[in-house]
Amino acid sequence: MDPTLLAILIAVGTSFALTMFALFDSIKKDFGSPGRKALWHLIAMVPFIGWLIYFIFGAKQGKPMQDLK
Q: Could you report how far apart the first and last alpha carbons of the chain are, in Å?
């Protein structure tokens, strides 16, 4: 396999995995309003940098949601 193609596949796979992690994290947090939650969810979906923006700025703003009883 071509090393360039392998590097691209690794970069895309890593970015995809981190994007999924950011999306699941945003689902589990309460941001105060549905609109803010949707905004952080959309930001996390921006290719290659959305997950980074979410983890730098958004993850700290959200609070863990209480379990439903």
A: 52
Q: List the structure tokens of 36.
A: 């803010």
pTM for the whole structure: 0.83
Instruction: Say what angle helices 3-27 and 34-44 make with each other, to 10 degrees.
Output: 170
Query: Tell me: the pLDDT tens digits for 17-65?
Result: 999 999 999 999 989 899 999 999 999 999 889 999 999 999 888 888 7
- Label each residue of 2-17 as H, E or C: CHHHHHHHHHHHHHHH
